[in-house]
Model the fold of this input.
Amino acid sequence: SDDPAPTRTDHHEKGITMDVDLTGKRVLVTGGTRGIGRGIVLALARAGAKVVTCYRSDSEAVEGLVKELAAIGGDHHVLKADVSDPEAVARLVDETEARLGALDVLVNNAGVISHVPFAELPLDEWRRVIDTNLTAPFLVIQKALPLLREGSSIITVGSRAAVVGIPLRAHYTAAKAGLIGLTRSLMKELGPKGIRVNLVAPGVIETEEFEKASPEELERVQTRYRGLTGMGRLGRPDEVAGAVLFLASDLSAYVTGETLHVDGGI
Ligand code: NDP
Done:
């Protein structure tokens, strides 16, 4: 044909096709209204799952997600719950039980990023970042345990940063590295119950945060990060979602305790 061969950029911009069937699976995803979490929620809903997700503060992103889920169709719920607050987590899990009954998949995605030189890092900021990125998955997993059963899958969103290290993010990388230990121990504690526990560790993913930057700043950041990856480009939320679908499905029935890096080869 006269059509030019597709370029790597064409392929990247088209998005990926996900054929995993999760019809009827009951799923809770924390922090699903923006960025990677939103990509995960939409991919799970399109795969046929019933999804409960939560967010921390009201925004246009919440309404946007509700509309997109309504367009996909199915049994989905978007709830307000700060996962760093134990009482809010208890209410979230109770509401999830009331709406879905039990859980086949739990995705701990909610997280906050922060950039502060270590020498100036205030204890409050250390605590805020540890609370949301490490303590929240502990709270959510522990509270949701009675809803999980043989064959259930727990997936937590970690970060490539946990093993490569990043300046100005000692608190963030410490929290994300903590998730590796949490995952490895739960692999052994929950394995006998038939519950799998894994991490997905994204590299640099283009989320709405990037859209806030000026064109010059965006170009500078993109060039810097592109150069760090083997594939020469940044990732997209749906590419992280692809790894989550794999770990949520029976395709990964014998995979537990793993960290699946989704980073284009950093
Ligand atoms: P975003 O800031 O784009 O989105 C975060 C989502 O989580 C929002 O829906 C936000 O809701 C929600 N959230 C944040 N804190 C809480 C909370 N305490 N309780 C409930 N919901 C909360 O983040 P990303 O998509 O960039 O990141 C998602 C995950 O991926 C995080 O764990 C992050 O560490 C990890 N990650 C991201 C990378 C990237 O390049 N983007 C790279 C590696 C890891 P609200 O809008 O209400 O605040």
